[in-house]
Amino acid sequence: MGRWFTLVCVSEEHSLSGSFEELALPLFDRLYNFAHWLTQDREEAEDLVQETYAKALKGFRSFQPGTNFRAWIYQILRNTFLTSRTGLKSSATVPLELESDEQNLPAVNDTPESILLQRSDRQLVQEALDRLPVPYREVLLLCEFEEMSYQEISATLAVPMGTVMSRLSRARRALREAVQELQEG
Amino acid sequence: MVCDGWTEKLDAYFDGELPACEARALQQHLRECATCAADGLAKVQQKLALKASGQRFVPDPAFRARIERSIAARRPSATFASGRRGWLPVFEIATVAAVLLIGAALFLTLHRGRGEQRLISELVDQHVATLASANPVDVISTDRHTVKPWFAGKIPFTFNLPELQGSPFVLVGGRISYLSQSPGAELIFRLRQHQISVFIFQDKELTDVRENETVRTALSFEVRNWRHNGLCYFVVGDASPQDLDKLSELLKAAG
């Protein structure tokens, strides 16, 4: 009887591990890319990804099938980053304006041709992103590169959708300013 | 010209998050307002540039392999093949199934063996009781044509008795017997100084009895049993094995 019970438990464990790999491993490269953007260091990015996968596998039983796995694992990665040494340091320098969830930003017409970005300005954009505070950098990457919806970003960052929209608006403006500074630099 | 009401909607529009009716209205405005259209163009350019620039860092293949190994190591079986996620190897399943089947077969064999042993012991006890009884039979007759009809209506089957003339055996008589709550017949035969009991029951009531014939010794008595025509026969006595075999052959020949 014990052998049958063991067989059933092994089968269940196998099934769970198999499901986790099927969901998590296809996201590996993107998670690593995102981790590296956050940490700005290869070794820290690897540690962050490793810890993310360990936590996700450990907590996989609590994951609700049919819900957004991508948002779930990105949230784990982000939370793990925020509690790391680099993450704590980056949180300590968050600009005051980010504390505001104000959605009605002053309208600014800032569309001179000089700040029109071309896809070929890849290095320029990347350097500009590097200069942004982590909250702006991450929201831009989640929206523009990961193509997450506002709802997914809201779940990943654990903030209301209104905050997602206002933060995106500020982040885009900050990026434009950073590009301009680099171009004029 | 600054279009306050529309500018704040541009981000949501180009992110695909604006509700359909608002999106249609904004599209109409963009056709009419060059400033907002230019602003929109800049936003689209920025989105495309970010999309192209976002992929910057590529993981080391060795690092990826390390992560995959660490996930696999957390599974219960380290020998799990990557190409068959979520399934035990077939040979493991087959091995476990074989062990279980053999175990079940052994259990059933032992269980059945014990059951048959119990029946034999019970019949031997009945034979001993008959030997010790002052009234060993309910019908006394050496004539098989008298004994056989006596059982009619008393047991749910009929049986044939052999012609014993010319043999060393003598029919003493018979009595009703019970085994596993099933009624049957006990026939008493005498061979010189020995008394032999022949028990007959319906074989469908005795599932513990093996299909094939058996020869054994139980409590110093010789025992023979076999199945024939839906009946199960047991011959119990302290005569020689050859004598019991001879009586068994006569009974089998009678059908």
Please describe what this structure looks like.
The complex is a heterodimer of chains A (about 180) and B (about 260). Chain A has 9 helices and no strands. Chain A is mainly alpha-helical. Chain A has 2 domains: about 1-90, Rna Polymerase Sigma Factor, Chain: A; about 100-185, Winged helix-like DNA-binding domain superfamily/Winged helix DNA-binding domain (Arc Repressor Mutant, subunit A), CATH 1.10.10. The termini of chain A are far apart. Chain B has about 260 residues and is α+β, with helices and mostly antiparallel strands. Among the domains of chain B are: about 5-45, no CATH class; about 120-255, Phosphorylase Kinase, domain 1 (2-Layer Sandwich). Chain B has helices at about 5-15, 20-30, 35-55, 60-75, 90-130, 145-150, 240-255, and strands spanning about 140, 170-180, 180-190, 195-200, 215-220, 220-230, 230-235. In chain B, strands 1-2-3-4-7-6-5 form a 7-stranded antiparallel beta sheet, sandwiched between helices. In chain B, strand 6 (about 220-230) and strand 7 form a beta hairpin. In chain B, helix 1 (about 5-15) runs parallel beside helix 3 and helix 2 (about 20-30) crosses helix 3. The longest helix of chain B has about 45 residues, at about 90-130. Mean pLDDT of chain B is about 80; it is low at about 75-85.
